[in-house]
Amino acid sequence: MQTHSGATPAWAPPPGPTIEYQRAGVWWDAVRVSAALAPAVFDVLDGRSGAVIEDAPGCLLTWFVQPGAAAGWPRLDGVAVLSRGGLSIGVPPAGQRWGELRWLVLPGSEGPWMDAAVLEQALTVGVAQRVGPRRPVTVLCTGCGRPTGEAVLVATAPAAFGPDHGAWACPACAPHLPDGPGVTGVVR
Questions:
Q1: Among 98, 59, 60, which residue's Cα sits nearest to residue 82?
Q2: Taking every pair of C-alpha atoms in the chain, what is the biggest distance, in angstroms?
Q3: Are the C-beta atoms of residues 170 and 188 closer than 8 Å to each other?
Q4: Euclidean distance between the first and final Cα of the chain, in Å?
Q5: pLDDT in tens, 87-110
């Protein structure tokens, strides 16, 4: 395994000829995406992609963002952000465009980094395209107790763990329901 010397002024792929394992969170955070999601992401990026590593056996693509740039991202299905304290990933030699671990998009002269906001947007749209439109969910109305596929959120209450609890009603009952006990905010 090769390592870069402390004299290296900026991050660069390993000079070759072998793969080098590098820890995420030092020079970059790695954003790993399932290969199934990649076509939709590339469509949204429309040529604005930063460097990308393809891991064919793992069916993964990896983009790079500045360390900490993806810390506030929401959780997205099929997307993993590796940051400080995260794993090491295999980085192919500079210019390697063949093999099971290769550069799908080579790093530019400024480095491998992708604009984190642009990548987050592309991933969000890509996940939505892959998952497709949501089917209506049927819930029981808080007011009349009948099932409805057009539920309206009428109130929320904090949960000890996990997401807040919601109170749902049919469109006819929603305007007439009083706030329930423990409700912190009413959505109307």
A1: 60
A2: 71
A3: no
A4: 60
A5: 888 999 988 888 899 999 988 877
